[in-house]
Amino acid sequence: MDHTVQINHDAVLRARVALLESGTLPVRRQVAAYRVLVQVSPLAYLPRLVEALYVYSRQEFSDRPAIALALRAEGLSAARRMCALEAGWEELLAAALAGHREQLALMGRDAELEVLDAEMRSLGLGFREALESLKRPRGSA
Hints:
Blueprint: H1 9-21, H2 27-37, H3 42-60, H4 65-85, H5 90-106, H6 113-123, H7 127-135
Helix pairs in contact: 1-2, 2-3, 3-4, 4-5, 5-6, 5-7
């Protein structure tokens, strides 16, 4: 049985064009494009997807915590996948963990925080530093 993913090349082309044609693409459309492009170039687009999902959850769903949490969980999953594919992405993972933790804390889901805290400690980055790296625009120091 063949378990390969069927890639919709038209969708990939549309996603690339969307990202190229506008410097101010709404974050919702960025997320949609990165979700498609991750299928063909995960190393290039997983970090961008993680960042876009975090921004999307904050900008569009701050009043809908369950959706914001689901988006941050998707970002965390993407960050873990990136770390599994290539070494050196621990800061991205820590940032995704911090973002997920932030949403859980806002929702009062304290019992789940300890697991995330332990994983963050194992990466050697603190909560504030990790979260700031996710909020910082890509390319800034």
